[in-house]
Amino acid sequence: MNEHGAAKSRLVWTLPVIFGLSTMFLWLWSVAEHRVQMQTALWTDDTTIPLVLAGGLNAPVATFAYPMYDLLYPDTSRLKRLGLVLGVILLWGYVGWTWDQRRQCRTVAARSRVVSILGVSFGIFTVCASIPMYHVGIIYKAAACIWAFSICRHFTRYWKGPPLSR
Questions:
Q1: What 3-state class would DSSP assign to 103?
Q2: Cα–Cα distance for residue pair 159/116, rounded to 1 Å
């Protein structure tokens, strides 16, 4: 593999590790903070700031973890937590792969237009599902809007007609 080939696939592995570990760290911090809150109250459904930050970093995945404060309780299933971490790894793997591929020629095919329609629909779903959420705050909602814009922008580039090359 040449020097450029090694540099091409760097982010596809680096970003999932960084953001997967960051999400797990923020979640553990949030659980500890929630335990402190529970010592002073009988029950709380407040979402802690570290969990909101983790959700904002991974808004397309966190949208499916609603309500987010449910992740703080010990009775939350391991399958739900595992699904969240795997979703984060897949999300950032795709982002890394996209950034690694940004300098390569790309072509537009009918199949990629269908994928782009599905991608834009998912971006719109992300913002429509995130804005009315309770217990997440402005940080998460702003991050969800940024994610939705980025997702839509990424997928609409395939609508431009003839094959593209750089």
A1: coil
A2: 8
User: Looking at the domain assignment, is residue 123 inside a domain?
Assistant: yes
Domains held by the chain: number: 1
139 within some domain? yes
Q: Do residues 135 and 69 lie in contact, with contact meaning Cβ atoms separated by under 8 Å?
A: yes
Q: Which of 81, 85, 156, 157 is nearest to 122 (CA)?
A: 156
Confidence (pLDDT) at 17: 92
pLDDT in tens, 22-78: 988 988 888 888 778 777 766 666 677 888 888 888 888 877 776 666 667 777 777
DSSP 9: T
Two tokens, residue 104? 């390569």
pLDDT for position 44: 60
Residue 165 is assigned to a structural domain of this protein: no
pTM (2 d.p.) = 0.73
Asked if 74 contacts 80 with a C-beta cutoff of 8 angstroms, the reply is no
Can you list the positions of beta strands (E) in 14-156? none
CA diameter of the chain: 62
Domain extent for 105 = 3-159
Task: Look at 5-9, 93-97, 116-120 and tell me which has the smallest mean pLDDT.
Answer: 5-9
Instruction: Tell whether 84 is covered by a domain.
Output: yes
Residue carrying the six token digits 């795709």? 94
